[in-house]
C-alpha cells in the first residue's frame, strides 16, 4: 500500500508497510488528510537505515568523543614544562654556581603558567569560562584543583621570577608544590572520565605526566647554552624523568593488553602513529644522551628528541582517547572487567 493510499484508508501520515498502529488512538481518523504535494509533510517513504549494511545498532558509539582541540595537548605540554621547572628551581635555590640555571627555570615556570591558560582559554572559547572554574574550590574535582593550581602557581611563579634569589621559602616552596600539581593533575583529570582507554590507565597517567614533565623540562634546558656543571644537573634531572616516562609507557602497554579493544585503540590510527613516534623519540633521546661524547650538539639533539617525544605523547593520548570512544565494545568490555573484578 502506498503512502497516499494509506492516508485515504486511515487518514494518517504513515504507511502500514513501515509501522503498525496500536493503542486507543489507533483507529482515529482525520477529516482532511494532507495532500501528497511533494514535501508538505517531510516523511520518509523508506526508512534510510533499512538498506544500510555498513553498521548496526551495536556498532553505534556509547560515548561522545572528546571535543578538545590541539590547544589542550599543547597546554598539557606547557603545564609539564612549567611544573618541572618550578620544582627544579626550588631545588637549585641558593646555589651560586647554578644561579643562571635557576633563573632559567624560574622563567620557564612563569612562561608555562602564562601560555598554559591562554591555550586552555582558546579551547574553551571564552575567558569567562576559565574564570568561572575559579568561582568554587571543590577538592573532589580534578578540574577544580587543576584550575586553582594553575592560577595560584602562575602568581607564585611571577613573584618568584621578580624576586629571583631573594625569594622566600613561602614563594619558593609554594611554586614547587603548585608546579607538582600542575604537572600531575592532568593525568588525574584524564583518568577520572568514562573514556575506556583513559580509565584503564588512570593509575599510571599521573606518574606518566609528572615524569614526562621532568623530561620535558630537561629537554628544553638542554637546548639552551649551559656550562659543564649546569649540563650535569640537567642531564641527571632529565634521565630520572625519561626513565620514569619510559617505565610508565611500558606498563601502560602491558595493561592495555588485558583489554584487546583498548590495545587496538592505542595502537591503530593517528593515536598509534603518535604513540610510536613518542616512544621512538624518547628512546633515541636516551641513546644520544648515553653516547660517550661531550658536545653541545649532542646535548641539543637529545633535548630536541625529548621535546618531540613529549609533545607526541600528549597528542597520542588525545587521539587514542577519541578512537576508544568511537568503539562501543571497548566501553562494554572495560565495564564488564570492572564488574568481574
From TrEMBL:
Domain of life: Bacteria
GO cellular component, one term: plasma membrane
Signal peptide extent: none
ATP-binding listed as a keyword: no
Transmembrane segments: 67-92, 104-122, 173-191, 203-221
InterPro entries per the UniProt record, alphabetical: Electron_transfer_protein, NrfD_2
Keyword Membrane: yes
Keyword annotations: Membrane, Transmembrane, Transmembrane helix
Protein name according to UniProt: Polysulfide reductase
UniProt lineage: Bacteria, Pseudomonadati, Thermodesulfobacteriota, Desulfuromonadia, Geobacterales
Name of the gene: nrfD
